[in-house]
């Protein structure tokens, strides 16, 4: 009988909880900053704007790094089908469920406060979905409005990185160990930020891949941060962190 027990890395859970709490506080204060938003307070404050700028500089990047660390434990625990099923249930299903429920209410508040619509919530729904579905198969990306984009892109990125991450956990484990040993050297871990710095400094802002941003950062950068979170766990003992 296999008596081996898995260890749950509670610090990753707590980092995730604190990061999501920070996101909640950030969005709660956006009613009062200078920038336009879904619903705004009549009185706005400059210090809240400074707080918001400070927040989005690191808020979503750290969430993607934490998500990448969790991927380290999810990859290789079962078949490819099991991995995909898990991501569908954990990410895609909540995304679609919230898109058809919570998001519609947020968009309704946005439209009535920005003079895009006048009427009741139930009068708004047919107009909203007609606009969303007019984009054909791309409607799934239109549904990410109002802060759900993270779930959708984490789902897509997880599937894109899965073959590479699975190889690193198996045939490429020696390569992963060498990278992890190098990153363990004093200061070496900061080199993981180099691709982000170079992209921000020299990337073409007109390139649609680079220009597509949510939460203040390019999707390419989020993809890299997700991968670096996985690399950072390369020498951790077996455990769970989902």
3D structure, described in words:
By secondary structure, this protein is mainly α. The chain has a domain at 9-57. It is built from twelve helices and four strands, in the order E-H-H-H-H-H-H-H-H-H-H-H-E-E-H-E. The chain has helices at 10-29, 46-56, 59-74, 80-99, 102-113, 121-133, 139-142, 149-169, 173-183, 194-202, 208-211, 219-232; strands at residues 7-8, 213-214, 217-218, 239-240. The strands form two sheets. It has a two-stranded parallel sheet with strand order 1-4. A hairpin with a 2-residue loop joins strand 2 and strand 3. Helix 3 crosses helix 8 (149-169) and helix 4 (80-99) packs antiparallel against helix 8. The longest helix has 21 residues, at 149-169. The protein is globular and about 60 Å long. The chain starts with 6 loop residues before the first strand and ends with a strand.
